[in-house]
């Protein structure tokens, strides 16, 4: 054994071992045990050695970096990666690529075994993965994500040869010391699939064969798509070439393209029996044999293959030579991509064995009526297809512009003044029109400057790109130059609008610009290969199925798959081309390059708006003087601003240009299509990648949505499961998305009226009377420390209030403007899951979930007659909305509804001029909506029984999370509090907690505790409700304190503002303690779950995964109570004469009470 240094650190156990070889050999017997690994003796640490003092992870990684010998470095990684337990300790994304990495290292560093034998004293196994291995795998994964997108874009932009040179460069470096540390190893199959697709379309078998050989040399397994592309390449050769023609890059288009498959087989070239043809058939047989030996079903993989118009025909021409009896029949019933649940879950570890799915087995025994509850919301299928065409047109434009119903600046709205009569110096419509025309003319001059700057940028990037560097050059070559210029002009419009409503930093602007470029590139490529035309054909078939009341197929998923299959048999292009999404880094690079052109080059004429004004006023003297001058000013500039205790670079538009935009009322509000409801039924979920909107995608339209737009989808592990194991989850999402909605127009009009009159805090509408820019902090030398501290605190509070009011105004502006845009329209809301498995609509601004305003704005598009008991349920719902009878029976609630019916009718008929009873309720806007519905039912000519109602009646669970914990722990008192037991009157868990907290507060107040005395009369249900709800999420004491502080701050009668902090902390402690008093077992169960997770992570070094009743693996304990809500959507819908026919989720069930 050779030792290079005086001391060396053991990378696995991270301890210091002696320097001399003799001393190491002597200590091996005492601190190590011998383990046989691949026919070699490898030392293993003893327990005493493992308990020695550890060094930091950074030191361990630096030790690995300091190794000079490349084979020794590789041996270290290979040994670690070959351990049986290491994959359990890695992140899922790293565990997936680990086998390919180990295979690649073994083939690239053949001397690794010799290095292992020479330095085996360094290779001491450990139950945890080494830091070096984790760091290298992370670099490899990130590099391959970036290169996958770069490969796809390079091929699309025609930079194929340059990309091949770059791949060769990285391949050489990966076999050297530099590449081992940087992780520049090309392992992702999508990189090679992009190359193979290009070779297949060119019928270039020589290059395709070289690619397959390279994969074999590097120890990388070929994917099924690679085999299919190779078969397609040979099929093209069989079709195109005769004996005299070359086998490389055909010069003529293939004859017979577009012919039906049955006629395509009889092509004369297929009957050739010359030597070249026999060679091609042998190659085909070899490829098919290799694919089958790896367990691939090539016919099944045709579903997932990104096909172009002639792909399937050439694949069939090749496959029929191997399987002569293969017919052109790709039956939906035989081979759907996701159609049923298998007996075992392929996403689960193999040691789990066979997993049963009781929910799936039960659902298979349920006899459905096979009726579509959502059909005929748009009665005529032609109208539905017209709505599809309109939706497709909106998504092709990439943005939807909506006229705002409120001013962008809340300071322009004064209390008690209507929009029509306020602001005597308002700009005339004629002046607005001329200012807008002048602004559009100015933008035309910008386009010329931006086009020149864009071409100069391409020239600079081309030089860098030719030096084998990853640049944005291919990303800026896919579209015509004018398209990039248009995107930059739209970016300026968005900055002008958004900077008035929120803080914009340069990173956010660049990311948004990069995302728009990516969407435009994908759309351009779709149009080029005919995906949009194919989408129209598929959706036409689906719309006809969707609009039938009697369902032929059991789920919406099956309807969509049937439509896809009907087109597949005709050899049509596939809708999902599987283009690799750009990473955040690539989007930022593209956006930064275009943002630089705007920032450096773009100017505008400051005097042009003045000239327009004077021309309108016919002031000839001023017009003549102004028209001869031009004052150019930069369009954008950046400023530093303090935000949340840090300095940020904010992007600002020039004040003169911002004023120009504002006075011209341009641009209107602009939204990405994925931020708005759909005008046609969404595409059903059939896989993890493609559903919801027709073309648009964003962070919320993934199957597992992200919390914000800057997340990196490629670097997440949340989709690490087999889609074939969760068909019922797909069906639940599709059922929710298929529900049609309408806007509650009277409530919308009332909301707009309140907002334009200055807002009303009690009605959840921000008040604009207090909206003013907070003054700067005034500090003088004579001020004491406490005075300065108080001044800073008051300034922060003022800034916070200003930001919150501004944010609330923007939220209501978006919500009301979108609702106004969708008046008289039927719309649909695509749905996705969050990290907990809970379902949310994809549109963020306008949907049926959330605040009182949001829920009061929306009703079902398809109405049903109330029937005999419908009016009673409307009355009960009205009482529930008031929050006055939470512990009363339904009979008592009906009796109370009869006593307030006059107030309800007065609210419905005179909402703002009557007694305004609805404004005093807990949920005022939903209360007003319910009052109007009751009044309409009572005024119906044929009586309430025949009244067709679209109004949703809610059914809410009693803290559903605590319900599950009480059931798990057989907690009697807790079960009573959350209505799990049979009792005469409903219980209120939040009221129970308030009683316990108030009892303890009285004791503390009597003992002289100041904060308990201050809180007298303020321990209310609303104050502690959020903290109780979030207990099942593991809310911390700090989080609960902040929640309670926020509720106390909103109480107008809470006098002692300096007690907000102590009061929040005090009530948080009592609230969490009282939950443990009422739910004696729930807290113990939560603690036990935490101990299990800690044991698995610390001792076993793996995460905890839970297999739920739907066959879905997730890693979040509190997601356990989501499952029954999803199952609710899979039961048959009641179809009697009752309004309440639909079950919803997230604690609010729109369903028949009798069916619960």
UniProtKB/TrEMBL annotation:
Residues 389-738 form the DNA-directed RNA polymerase N-terminal domain. GO terms for molecular function: DNA-directed RNA polymerase activity; mitochondrial promoter sequence-specific DNA binding. SUPFAM superfamilies: DNA/RNA polymerases (SSF56672). Gene3D superfamilies: 1.10.287.280, 5' to 3' exonuclease, C-terminal subdomain (1.10.150.20), DNA-directed RNA polymerase, N-terminal domain (1.10.1320.10). It is an enzyme of class 2 (transferase). Its EC number is 2.7.7.6. It holds the Pfam family RNA_pol. The keyword Transmembrane helix does not apply. One of its GO terms (cellular component) is mitochondrial DNA-directed RNA polymerase complex. One of its GO terms (biological process) is mitochondrial transcription. InterPro entries: DNA-dir_Rpol_C_phage-type, DNA-dir_Rpol_phage-type, DNA/RNA_pol_sf, RNA_POL_N_sf, RPOL_N. Keywords: DNA-directed RNA polymerase, Nucleotidyltransferase, Transcription, Transferase, Transit peptide. PANTHER family: DNA-DIRECTED RNA POLYMERASE, MITOCHONDRIAL. DNA-dependent RNA polymerase catalyzes the transcription of DNA into RNA using the four ribonucleoside triphosphates as substrates. Belongs to the phage and mitochondrial RNA polymerase family. This is DNA-directed RNA polymerase. It comes from Paragonimus skrjabini miyazakii. The lineage of its organism: Eukaryota, Metazoa, Spiralia, Lophotrochozoa, Platyhelminthes.
